[in-house]
Specification:
104 residues, alpha+beta, GIY-YIG endonuclease, three-stranded antiparallel sheet, 3 strands, globular
Length: 104
């Protein structure tokens, strides 16, 4: 997990959670603050709205969309425990990282 000020990073892989150890949602976007705001406002129906998965608990940057999509597909196949370990390695308290990225 790095800072969002790296001008070479244009794509973000992210995990939303309903609560610590709750429902997880994995997505990819080119504009992380806008996408998380859309999730929070219920802009997207379906999974994140149904399960209230709006806390940004993990993200990583990619400069190549193909690389980001391949990583997304790989993580989607991971066991849940591996996804939890990924989150806890970077964010052990399961803090909502929204405040850190919303002004970016």
């Amino acid at each position: 997990m790095g800072g969002m000020n790296n001008r070479n990073a244009y794509y973000f892989l992210y995990l939303l959670a309903s609560k610590p150890y709750g429902v997880l949602y994995l997505g990819v976007t080119s504009n992380l603050p806008r996408r998380i705001e859309q999730h929070r406002q219920g802009y997207f129906g379906g999974f994140t709205r149904k399960y209230n998965a709006h806390s940004l608990v993990w993200f990583e940057e990619h400069t190549d969309i193909r690389e980001a999509i391949l990583r997304e597909k790989a993580i989607k196949r991971w066991r849940r425990a591996w996804k939890i370990a990924l989150i806890e390695e970077a964010n052990p308290e399961w803090r909502d990282l929204w405040d850190e990225i919303k002004g970016q």
